[in-house]
Amino acid sequence: MTGFPRVLLLRFRSGKFKNFFLGPLVSSYRGWLGGFVTEELREGPSRLGYSLRPLDGESTVLASRTIVSPVSFNKYGVNLDALNGAAAGAIRRARAGKAAVVVDELGSISLKAPAFMEELVALFSSGFPALVTVRENAAVFLSTFSALEGCVPVELEEKKAAAAERTVRAWLDFYVRLKGVSR
Fold it and tell me: How many angstroms separate the Cα of 154 from the Cα of each of 1, 17, 87, 134?
């Protein structure tokens, strides 16, 4: 046993704070991480939707008011190809050569993307290190991941930010050293 879990599950309430927290970590460890992050698409004060950005590729629109789709998230149509293609591919590529995978914001729309879910199952079955973010209100995912062996939840809230950052950085440093991956 390494003393470090294989999966860190970052539970968060505020998407804005999650992005504020995750952005510098992903930037600091960019060469060692693969996977993807999600970001708001904004025009001034208005949110237009969300993008999905593979850490090794170009952003694609994940959800938007302009997308017509049988799957929706709040008032946004969902681009399942972003999950089945870009996100699934980013996870697969990360497992092939990086120290850890970032999977940003698992939620109910993930269940609608079969290729993405297949890649997630392969990731979690493999024991490959993964940093996963999940909204606190995504009860199904939180209970499922909390039951996985080797998965440790980390509360991501402002008053505990320093402790969460120390935990995540120590975890990342361990897997970077273990893998011996160079930037």
Answer: 20, 14, 23, 10
- Return the bridge partners of 76, or none: 73
Say which residue the tokens 């497992």 belong to: 95
How far apart, in whole angstroms, are the C-alpha atoms of residue 75 and residue 116?
A: 22
Q: Residue 119, SS3?
A: helix
Tens digits of residue pLDDT in 5-61: 999 999 888 878 888 899 999 999 989 999 999 999 999 999 999 999 999 999 999
Q: What is the CB neighbour count within 10 angstroms for residue 5?
A: 18
- The token pair that represents 49 in the structure block: 């939707």
Q: How many CB atoms lie within 10 A of CB 158?
A: 12
How far apart CA 77 and CA 71 sit, in angstroms, is 6
Bridge partners (DSSP) of residue 42 are: 47
Helices (H), 49-182: 80-81, 88-97, 114-126, 139-147, 161-179
CATH 3.40.50.300 applies to domain 7-179: yes
Given a contact cutoff of 8 angstroms between Cβ atoms, the answer to whether 134 and 10 are in contact is yes
Distance separating alpha carbons of residues 183 and 178, to the nearest angstrom:
14
Distant-in-sequence contacts of 76-84, Cβ < 8 A, 24+ apart: 76/49, 76/50, 78/109, 78/112, 80/112, 80/113, 82/52, 83/52, 83/109, 83/110, 83/112, 83/113, 83/115, 83/116, 84/113, 84/114, 84/115, 84/116
